[in-house]
């Protein structure tokens, strides 16, 4: 299957939504992620058991049926679409999910769980030959105007949430992309327009409804199952299937949002990265947001900037250089995402991502762009190649809002403003998979080693931007917090059902392992548990 690549300026905007939107040789040895197929006989037996033991209201769909195909085609990543479960099962309630898990456990059925299906890597929320638990029917949006809260099912896309909240003139901390689902976004943290003053999107969740490994349905909040409440702020696929998020809301801001693409010149580089550096150190202006990225597509290199205000006041350009394209709007969150940021962008891509975290340094950002040019120069003739190097600021005020999350201590260690660096590479030809992964990983490895050498590197890796080879729990939390997560996991899933059967998302590594240091000081990524060892979704 070949994806349709948007024009360069559109692709830049699309990539920025994820911000908003080893060896450095291309000869480095790299293998495509292993996604071991489940024995077909076992898969068929599991699907038969589901059909026989579930009520008729819960659909179990075989490959080739319209319902199966509808689920399969919603995956953002074309690599995900290369996996074919034996069947998909579509629960309508938490009780249905409970029954599905009990059947899967009894018959030892490997499964994956998908809500929006927007995680980028192969096997993250899909499975070859097993069962996919499709949460799209858990798409409730129950609004309490009196309490200023909302109950969300994991299967809703955020654009539907914003549309439902708009008539009540309220909003909540959701994604900056039409296609992203509620479930995966919040399970990985989630960066929002309001993150400078509210932190990660998951910070606004005050109650979870969760189906545990034994099939019980529990409420999880700061007073009930408080240890699990803390752990679910970095849930991954370790503790239970979340069937409802109860979130606080706030008055709907009138947002000014703008997306601009600029030619890369000495002037634009200095101005735009300088403005981003200033923004990254300013946590006083909580009504302003900005992300910047370098992108190369179809022989055109640009800097793209997404900026906006939560008070609706337009801002002037960040450089005197004339933009190649510019779009802006004053309106609701729904309107700004739908009309300015999202545009007419392709919902699928053949992609590889890589992320790491650094302190703010304008020269380092410039050097990342130069290195990207050098590494990808031999590949410029490959069909559909787009290379994005993007930067998302995390001011200290942002980090402080995450005090109730497992990631807080790891993020706080630098005692400084930070930046998530996202490398996002897309291409057309499946035959280019290995070389594109090699190149992206080489750029990321160089960036981490160079940031370490300059005293800029943070250990933190953000789950929703990571690929399957990156060690999330070894790097997103401290050793003490990792031990605490292991304790919570053992308490709520003592038999290890989700470790053994849930293929997808990021797994907590075995006891006693917290990564090893390389000669550069960057944690070793080759040992311990990986995402692909027991293969959730966002952004």
TrEMBL record:
FAD-binding PCMH-type domain ranges (all copies): 81-252
Keyword tags: FAD, Flavoprotein, Oxidoreductase, Signal
Transmembrane segments: none
Secretion signal, residue range per the UniProt entry: 1-30
Stretches the record annotates as Disordered: 513-539
Key word Acyltransferase present: no
Pfam families the UniProt entry points to: BBE, FAD_binding_4
Biased composition (Polar residues): 517-533
Keyword Flavoprotein applies: yes
Alphabetized GO MF terms: FAD binding; oxidoreductase activity
InterPro entries recorded: BBE, FAD-bd_PCMH, FAD-bd_PCMH-like_sf, FAD-bd_PCMH_sub2, FAD-linked_Oxidoreductase, Oxid_FAD_bind_N
Family: Belongs to the oxygen-dependent FAD-linked oxidoreductase family.
Name assigned to this protein: FAD-binding PCMH-type domain-containing protein
Taxonomic source organism: Marasmius oreades
The organism's taxonomic lineage, starting at the top: Eukaryota, Fungi, Dikarya, Basidiomycota, Agaricomycotina
